[in-house]
Amino acid sequence: MRPVPCATDILRPVLWEDIRSLARALLAHPAQRRGALCQEILKGAARARVYAAATGRCHPRWGDGSVDRAARRFPLAPEPFPGAPDYAGCLQMALAAAQHRKP
Q1: Going by C-beta distance under 8 Å and a sequence separation of 6 or more, which residues neighbour residue 10?
Q2: The whole model's pTM is what?
Q3: CA dihedral (76, 96, 16, 80) positive or negative
């Protein structure tokens, strides 16, 4: 399989779809696993951004460097209304991660 050409933005803006996909990935896992999973997804997205910058290709495992693509490596829960308590907690975790992420 040939590598897929990829955008090479090192510092991508965090889009609403990134937040939603990250929150849905977190929601699909037990609460005690969510913190570690959130970090794994963010590190994977960062790894993909570096890979894309170096090669001009998408990372074979983590995608194009977006949080959305990295989160979609994992099962995503169906998206409930934002006010659903468990989902709201996952959205808060995703927003906090976006606020504190490093380029």
Answers
A1: 49, 50, 53, 103
A2: 0.86
A3: positive
